[in-house]
Amino acid sequence: SRxxxxxxxxxxxxxxxxxxxxxxxxxxxxxxxxxxxxxxLFILPWVLISxxxxxxxxxxxxxxxxxILYGSKNHYYWYxxxxxxxxxxxxxxxxxxxxxxxxxxxxxxxxxxxxxKVIILLMLLWPMTLSALESVFEMHKENALLSLLWIITMxxxxxxYKTRRKDAISFSLIILSIYLVGITFITRTIFEAGGSExxxxxLSAIVILGLSTxxxxxxxxTIHAIQSDKPASTGDNQ
Length: 238
What we know:
The protein is an all-alpha fold and 238 residues long. The protein has a domain at 1-78. It is built from eight helices and no strands. Helix 5 runs antiparallel to helix 6. The radius of gyration is 21 Å and the shape is flat.
């Protein structure tokens, strides 16, 4: 029942509070990532039996935090992590997104909410986009694999969400990632082409304004086409 699912979710949150208090009282000396990893493992059985999307999202968030904290444990700041961490985050979130798409393909109703897809897709895109942006300025073997994964994901996401799934929100997120990397690459190219910094700045501003306008108009038309075509496609499938 929905009451039971919400109760399990609340209990899962309370597990984290208990572990935090336990660690503070007994001074276990455990690293922060161990807290979130333990939290994830303790609630895993509840997640598997819950058939409740927020429970799965909670698990995914905890696993992401675990990887981030583990990757930054030897650094001063929590957000200072390497490409191995970004790759781990990408693979983790990609698995969850593929499971989510499979559930939608098989019409598993409890996993079909649009919000959970957007959350998972955002969690997949941010490490990939961050690595792709880094590659624009400095390409090396550590981020080459992530950059390749980003390119493949953008191509497949463009096709899947525009042609097959016809999901306007997910398609927009894919385009946003492509736009950010593309505009960064163009701006870097302009500044490295030579000439005065003032001229490069104004040229970059004009290019960004033009591309932003064109992308917005194109995306608006494309989303309208996706939304107009979706009911007809649904009817054909039925």
